[in-house]
Structure formats: structure tokens, C-alpha cells
Amino acid sequence: MSSIVKYSIVVPVYNEEEVIHETYRRLTEVMHSTKEAYELLFVNDGSRDRTAEIIKEYSEQDPAVVLLDFARNFGHQIAITAGMDYARGEAVVVIDADLQDPPELILEMIEKWKQGFDVVYAKRTKRKGETYFKKQTAAMFYRFLRAMTDIDIPLDTGDFRLLDRKVCNQMNSIQEKNRFVRGLVSWVGFKQTAVEYERDERLAGESKYPLKKMLKLSMDGITSFSYKPLKLASYAGVTLSGIGFIYLLVMLYLKLFTDSTITGWSSLIVIQLFFSGIILIILGMIGEYIGRIYDETKNRPLYIVREKYQLEPRKEVSLRD
Fold it and tell me: From the CB of residue 203, how many other CB atoms can be counted at a distance below 10 Å?
């Protein structure tokens, strides 16, 4: 395979055997239309089905197909990171394999890139085939994250985007373990713009981001770009201490200057439970940050590649494994 690649299409995959044929067909069709050199870099994130085998077959027939096969499941954000580490193109596009993000939009991204933009991200105007709960929680998360950080992370965007080579190089130099890629892309800066689209339903299979993983991603996003939760804990402590002091003054007044007394243990138990809950929440916030500090100090590799198929790594990039 030629070492000169114009476009690298990074596709993280996890148990996508039902859709991978159509994904490959549409990506190939789109990239052929550019009439420029490209690579389809699939990152198999520990799939338990035939996804890796199918992609390996493609790599044997199509010199544009590259497969990174992880030793186990490391997570979607790490798979994207690995793809960017190994990508050789002047422009790198990240797209999921489920075809909710239309590959045809890549052509519009390339046009924006040729106009001089370093990052072109896809902004959803409508999300088809998703539950009301998923839509509402996603909208709330992006707005909450924007309010909590000083980084301008675009609303209603995912990881579907194009990065110029210089942006990708900067991303590759970031060593964080608990990664929130779309936030990091905003953090590095450069000239960015959006292309809008309507997100389709999954062609087949099921979502790889159930509630548990969505919560993990949300926590990674908040803790990576904001320490305001720690400040909120301080504010909560001051507020509750103030309330407790006022309550103490009220009890002293009733005891010394009136015949009324506050009897019973119910109010005391309620107050104790309330304060205990606040304390545990604060400790939980602190624990999240400490846990992430611990992950960083272990200095383990972000991922382990078991096998590489049809790959010529770029010499100027220090690969993480």
C-alpha cells in the first residue's frame, strides 16, 4: 500500500457484523468519488462476533482497508484514539460503523477542509430512531457540560468529524487516560466549523452506549474539563453550615425567650440524614477526581493491539503501544 494517503477514515467497531458490509460499501463508494488516495482504518475494540474476520477479508482484497485488532475491549474513546495514532492521512475523519452518521457527509467535510478549516464537526439537527429519554438526556448533558466548563464544546455533536493532520498530531500528544475526544478536539482549538445533518436510525444491531456507558462518558467529560463540581461541594458545605447555624439560633431563641420547645427526634433524624447524604455526595465527587489521578499515575498504555493488518505506520508519530 502506498505511504501517501490523503484521507484516513477511522472507524471504531464493536460487534458490528450485521452492519459492517454496508458500512464498507458506502464508505468505499464515497471515498472513491474523491479520486484521491485514502485508507479505511477499522479499529476492532474486542468484538465477540465475526466483525474482525470480515474486515480482515476486506483487507486482503482491498489495499485501502486497514485493521487494528485490540487485545480486548478498551472502549469507544480509546478506539478512536488508536485510530488517530495510526492514521496516515493529511485529513482524518472519525465515523462510527452503525451508519447513523451518513458517510456521504464526508464529502461536505472535505470541502470545508479545503476551504481552510482545520476541524469540521457534524452537528445533529434531528435524531431519528432514538427514545425521548435518550434525546432529552443527551441534550441536557451537552448543555450542562457547556455550563460547567470554560471550553466551548459545540452542542449536539458527537465524534463524527474531520481533523487536519496538525490537529491530529496535537491530539496524539495528549496522554489522558479517561478520554473525552470531542472535548479534547475543542480544547486544542484551531479553526473549526460545523456541517449540519439529520442523524439516521441504526441500520442493524443495538446501541453500544447503554445508560451505564453514557454515564461514564458524561463523568469523563465533566471531570476532564471542569473542577467546578469540587467548588460546588465547597459552596454546598458553606450553605448547609449557614443553615445549621441559623437553625441553632432559632432553637436558642425558642429556649430562652419563649415557652415553646422543639420536641421529638424526627426533625433531628431528617436533618442528620440530609447532611449525611450531602457529605457522601461530596466525598463521591472527590473520589471521582482522585480515581482519575490514580489512573494517570499508573502510566499503563491506553490500549494493546493484538494484530495489525495491512498497516504501514507513520514514522514521525510515536505510537502508544
Answer: 15
Q: Give the containing element (helix H, strand E) for 196.
A: strand 192-199
Q: What is the 3-state secondary structure (H, E, C) of 94-129?
A: ECCCCCCCCCCHHHHHHHHHHCCCCEEEEEEEEECC
Please tell me the pTM assigned to this model: 0.68
10 DSSP β-pair partners? 41, 94
HSE-CB at 198 with a 13 A cutoff on CA atoms is 5
- Provide the residue type at 238 as one letter: V
pLDDT in tens, 162-217: 999 999 988 888 887 778 888 888 888 888 888 888 776 655 555 555 556 666 66
- Three-state SS string over 216-228 comes to HHHHHHHHHHCCH
Burial class (CB in 10 A: 0-12, 13-18, 19+), 26: middle
Query: How confident is the prediction for the chain on average, in pLDDT?
Result: 78
Cβ atoms of 65 and 310 within 8 Å: the answer is yes
Closest CA to 30 of 40, 19, 20: 40
Q: How far is 55 from 51, CA to CA, in rounded Å?
A: 6
Q: Which three cell numbers stand for residue 312?
A: 504501514
Cell of 241: 453550615
